[in-house]
Amino acid sequence: MDIFQETQAFYNQAKTEKTIIGRSTFGREIYAVKVGQGSPVGIAQYAMHGREFITAKLAMEQYKIGVQKGSMWFIPLVNPDGALISQIGLDSVENEDDRAFLRTICKGETFALWKANGRGVDLNVNFPAKWGKGKKNVRIAGAENYIGNKPFSETETQALKTFTEKIRPDYTVSYHTKGEEIYWYFYQSMRTCPRDKGLASVLSASTGYTLAYAKGSVGGYKDWCIQRFQIPSFTIEAGADSFSHPLQDDGLQDILRRNAYALYDLSGAVARL
To answer: What residues have CB less than 8 Å from 236, skipping those under 6 apart?
Structure first.
């Protein structure tokens, strides 16, 4: 099975509360599944970058463990089109015009390293949090770093926006690969900064990953959640740098070992605030 089929099977088999939060550029469902009850409420989202589709499998394993306190919504595959472009290539794209467009913007590079969605927009720079001011931002469609023509220009980011505003989470976690780092800072106030760093330290203790600051990185989901809701929000770069993009099942075992209880531990820490 490809990663979308695996995610679809996971969703269909889940016995807990679940929903489809929206659809991708090419019409694929974006699934969300909940574990636990009550507060604190978290959102964990995965595979926003196509070539990082291995994190969807992490979501399915973390779902089995659940959370220590409250509830958590898992969104395993935010970018199904990009994931399939990376995993399978253009055979995953049905429309010939779309395939021709993607060939043009890929500029001869391998599709295995594709990060963007089906329109060549990097979803993790498409949020209105210092949008367009990132160090690596570009303004032309491609495999990575294109910010889109405006914030929330993509169906995937619109779906995540609408769902997040509906749930009003107490915290969020975004899983990416790779580097074994945790990003937690985005211009928080003096009031919330110590809180968020403390929770990031809980994630660090659980995973063994170091805390880091992504200088010049803006426009991400984490950034928007911190700015929009003033909640703790984290990006976890899972997987060792010794593994090559896109990470495969050999890298998954290391990711699972480090991250299996990360959300479980974090939920307990948020509940103690």
So the answer is: 173, 174, 175, 176, 181, 182, 183, 203, 207, 209, 259, 262
